Amino acid sequence: MWGLGKSTDVPTLPPADVLAQFNARLANGYNPITAPIAATPSVSLPQQTFLSSLQTAVIQPRQATRTEAKLAQLDTYVRDFAMSECARHGLMAWRPDFRGSPETPYNAVHRIIAETIFLSLAASHAFAHKRIDLSYIEDKPANRTLFRRTFNHFVFYTQRNNWKKELLLPGSVEKTAVDNAMFGRRLQVQELRQDQMKEKPRRQQRTAEEPAQISCDERAQVTVDYHTGTGTTAQRQMDALRVCSMPLRSGKYTRWYQYLDGEAEKTKKFTKKRPTGFAATQPKLERIRVADAPESKVSKLPSKTTIDWFEPDEFNSLPAAVRRLYADHPRVAFPLDENLMYQNPPHESMTMKEAPFMEKYGKAVLALYKIPGFNAPDAASSDPDADTSDSEVQDVPPAGGGGGGGSNTGGQEVVMAGTG
Q: What ranges does the record list as Gly residues composition bias (predicted)?
């Protein structure tokens, strides 16, 4: 009804002349609730454009947004119903004045229109796929209050705040959505790798317990090699999720994660259900590593990871205050010799309990890391990096972070600006 084709679209305010005309008619005794519907409902140009996009979404679902694809599944009578309700109340477009009070006559009419349409469609099972509890559409005071509060929150809080943010910083709503999608994908990758580690020793399970251990990714055009079928290899551009680099993470861990992802793909091939609905119309975006990948825009460090997650030289170059955060019982997951990690049957270093592993293999790895307060002299009290009282912060995307995948949940993390 609002003409928003995707979740990041920001609504516009009604023109001043529209508000003035509505209020003038109201002052002259016009009742938008009981007024007869016009013979031919007028539809504003923005709504005409939006309705046309829904027709396009039916024909070309790959070109549609998720919102347009879902709305296109509704019968055309639903759209006609929405337009006729607007016309019945003397409106050319459904465009609430979200800067004003929810209880003004103009905004009250918009709420009544939304309520009428939603309750009518819900009662006719148009939203059966959402599994709506139909007891809430009964005409009861509590249900009306719930609907009003939900409507007011969406229009006069969520959308008004989006409008304000976009006014102050154009593109901020889109950027926030891209960042959230990136964090969501990162969380999915972390959870998938964590599932692969369930049968591993506890020290190895710690290698995939925090989203901060996982690289971010961003949607981009990536150049890849492909076989032409004639025995030659050519290059082509494809839309993919380009994995960002993490200079602080050791190459050993990057290769280990790639191994886990390969094992997960083998499992998924035989167990994953085929996508349906909107997901079935969208091409799959592969997560691809490239040589010249940009550094991760989220520069938080995992706080509970095993110490060999870090590249030794990179770790030792960090400020003493940061390294000291890992002085409390640092753990090691893998042996120094990477070749032992992929043997079949598994090498003893990949199956041993933590205590014997640390005695036989872990000490050699631990000696590569200079950890103040553990195996290196602690910094002097005058060290400007010595204060770590505010080291634990919430993982949120920094200004300027681009798109790509994961969530910002999971464990305490420490800020390291510009580390990738």
A: 399-409
Report how far apart, in Å, the C-alpha atoms of 322 and of each of 197, 386, 389, 412 are: 28, 9, 11, 13
Amino acid present at 31: N
Could you check whether the bond before residue 345 is cis, i.e. omega within 30 degrees of 0? yes
pLDDT digits (tens, 9 = 90+) for 331-364: 999 999 999 999 999 999 999 999 999 999 999 9
Give how many domains the chain has, as a whole number.
2
Q: Model confidence over 358-405: pLDDT tens digits?
A: 999 999 999 999 999 898 887 544 454 544 444 444 444 444 443 344
pTM of the entire structure?
Answer: 0.69
Judge contact between 212 and 413, C-beta under 8 A: yes
- What is the rounded CA–CA span in Å between residue 383 and residue 220? 42
Q: Which domain holds residue 165?
A: 16-169
Together in a domain, 103 and 245: no
Please tell me the number of Cα atoms within 13 Å of 138 on its side-chain side: 6
Name the E strands within 197-274.
217-227, 233-243
Strand 300-302 versus strand 413-415 pairing type: antiparallel
Assess whether 161 and 198 both reside in one domain: no
C-alpha pair distances (Å), 87 with each of 30, 53, 97, 361 = 14, 21, 17, 77
d(CA 216, CA 165): 25
Task: With residue 302 as reference, give the H or E element that holds it.
Answer: strand 300-302
Q: In whole angstroms, what is the distance from residue 195 CA to residue 95 CA?
A: 47
Q: Is 5 helix (H, G, I), strand (E, B) or coil?
A: coil
Asked if residue 351 and residue 298 are part of one domain, the reply reads yes
